[in-house]
Protein 1
Amino acid sequence: MSSQLTASAGSPQLLTLRGINKSFGAVAALMDIELDVAEGEVVAIVGDNGAGKSTLVKVLAGVHSPDSGTITFEGQEVSIPSPAAAQHLGIATVFQDLALCDNLTVVDNLFLGRELSPLRLNEVAMEVRAWELLKQLSAKIPSVRTQIASLSGGQRQTVAIARSLLGDPKIVILDEPTAALGVAQTAEVLNLVERLRERGHGVIMISHNMADVQAVADRVVVLRLGRNNGDFRVKDVSTEELIAAITGASDNVVTRRSAARSTSEETHTS
Amino acid sequence: MNAKTQPTPGALALDLQDERLQDRTGLRGQYKAFVDRTRSGDLGVLPVIGGLIVIWTVLQILNPIFLSPANLVNLAMESSAVGIIALGIVSVLLVAQIDLSVGSVSGLAAAVVAVTSVNMGWPVWLVILATVGLGAAIGWVYGQIFNRFGVPSFVITLAGLLGFLGLQLYTLGARGSINLPFDSPLVYFAQLAFVPLWLSYILVAAAAAGLFATDYFHARARKHAGLSAMSLQNMALRAVLLLVALGVAAWYLNQSRGVGWMFVLFIALTLILNYLLKRTQWGRSVYAVGGNPEAARRAGINVKAIYTSVFITCSTLAAVGGLLGAARLAAANQGSGTGDVNLNAIAAAVIGGTSLFGGRGSAFAAILGIIVIQSISSGLTLLNMDSSFRFMVTGVVLLLAVMLDSVARRSRTSHGRA
């Protein structure tokens, strides 16, 4: 495994996973997973459906506990038994389903679980902070006192990402951040990811979109059927190589299809 | 964007800068916002106020005594015990759970009050402490069963309904009825303690001044931070409206015996619960758990602790309601907390606008709802109709309230409001 790739980058390691296993009944979702994230590094995790990406994210977010394996965070071996523990460590996660409360307002959702002055909520300070944060992200949200239920998909994604930044996390995990977004909002999210890197956060980004991955990531980790199947520097890898790693051996439906096309082109040209 | 640091005159407030926002400032804007909200299915207290006007008009036409000060004083006193139980129901409904055993728990509390104070001669403070502790313990057990075994709250509390009714009968013993002595402070509090005339007006003025001060300091803090704030004119209007409404109510009740301390206790508990729900982290968590438990859990909220705390709140308030019910009746018997207490408390919470689907409602729902329920009850009693009619009418009103809630919920969904 090419995890030494990152050691050459020079920045200190934030997060190191070794030998992570997780099964659901008879199904092994993760087998012997390794992952490294350094400060100011954007690591994309790619893989087909059922490759274990979401399970890995949930392990890091404290939603699932791994069956075995070690998690090292800032040089210390840690366990992440609950979402609160993950937050406390400095791992913020934006889930694909965003996990927002529809019946609460934007401000309420941003500060959910970490309200300012718990015994006498400081609504004014929270609202000001919310506006500042949303302005930094150039977010297009008309009012922070509207309920989440009345926002569009892109606006909800923005709120969810903004929320992950409030705790000033060391690592931000984005699960399919651009899946439901329009062109401009996708670009906005990618800019945001780069801003996170500049600020020294480690970013773990899960994506199906190779263009997004190659646009913003430093390193790509490929998962396949619950195992590591490659760890590439983005600038050294082509889309074809990535797809080969994602789909497995070179003999599969995608390569067969492209092979068939190229042979038919050859026969046409000859 | 320097509006935040230096709010220059004429510059728009930080929260009003988006060009898509329509002007909703001033009284006119507020009226428009209110119409928008209502049309999209966010009805608030509108249906219950409307319903109350209809019910009071009809009952007053049928029996002119109904709106007399004496009857309204009675109505306020009768509302308090069940109203306090309804407060607990509101908090349980907010997390989309239910407690069907509040009637039995209040009956058990009544039995415990009677046995400890009459048979065992405990001092009043110890009786109160024991009753409140009993309620809290029951709620804690519900919470543990709910969290550990995942039994639906509906079933747990249905078992509680039967179980605690049995415990109540066992506690009361063979005679089945224990009278509280009339010189007991509890009985005095629930039957004869009224706010003195002068104090009632001072309380009214204090309430209006309190509302104005809260609004004023809130607006000042918002303006200071560069956010839009309520206008002074608006604040004054709110305070004066409250002053007039409460003042007229107090004056009218003072034509008879006045405002009972027990009703004041009910209002005070409502205000405390309202503060806890709206202004503390706990309350925000309660709404979040009611809206989306998974999102709440991922936000780091201890969802299980929230469920437990809410069950404890509900059972404790049910026990307090039972204590006051026993004091008002000056007795605990096999009928305490049975019959319509359970359903009245739940109906009051729902009629007052608390959603059965969780995450919507406020503590004030209990006051408005219980006044509707007690009005029907009191009016039909004045018309010499027995409990058979009362049950039927209350049943219909409850059904109407839930139907309204369901229709309003559908409308909210289609208008993009949760």
Note: Chain A has a mean pLDDT of 83.
Protein 2
Amino acid sequence: MTPNPNSSIIFENVSKFYGEVLGVNRVNLTLPPGVTSLVGPNGSGKTTLMNLVTGLVRPTQGRVSVLGLTPDEPEEFFRHVGYCTQFDSFPKGVTGFEFIQQSLRLRGVSGPEAARLTTEAIDRVTMSDAAHRRVAGYSKGMRQRIRLAQAIAHHPTVLVLDEPLNGLDPMARSESIALFEALGKQGLHVIISSHVLHEVDKISDQVVLMSYGYVVAEGQIHGVRTEVKEHPMQILVRCAQPGLLASRLFAHDHVVEAKLNNDGKGVLVRTKDADQFYQLLNKIVVEDDFAVDTVSPNDDDVNSVYQYLIGSGGGTV
Amino acid sequence: MSTATIARPRKSFSDLPWQLWTSQLAALLRMEIKKTLWMRRSIWIYLLAFAPTVMFGIHALTSPMGRNCSIEEDTRVLAYTFQIFYLRVGIFFGCMGLFTWLFRGEIVEKSLHYYFLSPMRRELLVAGKFLAGLITTSLIFSASVLLCFTFVYGHFGAPGRAFVFNGPGLGQLGSYLLVTVLACLGFGSIFLALSLIFKNPIIPGIVVLLWESFHAVAPSLLQKFSVTFYLTQLSPVTIPPDGLMALFTVIAEPVSPWLAIPGLLFLSAAILVFAAFRIRKTEISYLAD
């Protein structure tokens, strides 16, 4: 199905070079609404991709459109887009409240409405107590949260967040993740780059894996994992008779390995064909009246895919 | 090619978001004027601007009722101070310090992206920052000139008041203030544009200083690209071209004030249009700065 350009973020053959240094190369992506995680090591091009979305840098080649808009129409474009960059910097001498209120006034929002939206945004990041203190006296986590509040204050439909969990304590981290998830479920485009893979993994509707300026893989994480052919899928089957199950599974070619789990209450299976494995397991359960407690993929999370594709020198997708 | 690339119909003049632009400009001016008027970096600009005021103040105190001096002599000293100090040193360096910092400061402090991420045309950002700088420098230097003028003629008592209110004094004051604002406008536009081209605008600033100081030796056509060329002829009191001063004060082919003012405005507008084009292509890359 052709994606609707007015509801997607589209990269068409986008390349960005900083002089002779590659930022990103030949990126073709369509990001639908929901939470999209950009994953990759430092220098892989995540921030460049985010800066391209928001017009802070312009493509050397290709084009980027956000909901059918480009930064050349800033009045309309930035009404929809909010960007929390990784720059931990603020205008001099402002309080958290002033920082957000000023940015809303620059958007043409009237004084009382700007004050209302500022209070609302500060409440959402639970910074009300410190709102009227100078930003210069904030901790790193507080600065991160106030920048997040500034990015969401005008109710954007596209929210771009560059390493938004950096510097946050566990409580704030958990609250932020819940906020991103809620925004994603409201139908917003939430694009997040993060090194904390297991956290973004929980809330991501799709991932974009990047390495050396190239998009290595993209899509829903399960789909991406299935496409990684070089690494058999790991599936953990919890059951009362793991030894018996392992012996039944060994007879099949697509099962590469079946070993007892450390706790002795399950079998960790590595298979080249997950679909065939699930059919086989169904057959065993039905024919042998075999009791299975749970079946769960063990390595179709972002972390595993990241390791397979990027961490260990890349794989074939 | 996606449907997103379909050209949108060009909006007519009346369909443009004037109301939004006006409110954005007002918000920007409020922020920027507050910042530029009270920033710590502005202290030396105040010192520079008000140094002659202190000098004339001391003169007024030490020569009560015009003792040991004359209105003609003080008028000439004020004219020298204005043309040599204010135009070529005070306003020049004041504008250099303030206007180059309008964007360069945001880059150094890594806060320019907040402006770029707001729904504000970058051309409007240039206009707003320039206007804020113009208002600030005009306020500072006009206040300084006004105080100097008051000190110069105030201490003469009745003859001084007669010179100001019944003689050429008030007209001269108006011209001094007009030239002050025009100087801030002209130099301001140059330094704002330079700050968008060069990471360190000091060297180009020195080149501009040399050009503005010695443009009199250039062909008459080239002289018209100098801000001081217009300002010198708009100054209300002519300085006699004696000795070395002739280099700074002689104008080979003067133009009338009716051409000098539009000429300066046109020159500044052209420079600002260039700055607007420049900032449209500016990317956020703080690491490179």
Note: Chain B touches chain A at residues 1-5, 8, 17, 19-20, 23-24, 27-28, 30-31, 35, 39, 109-111, 113-122, 281, 283-286, 288 (CB under 8 Å).
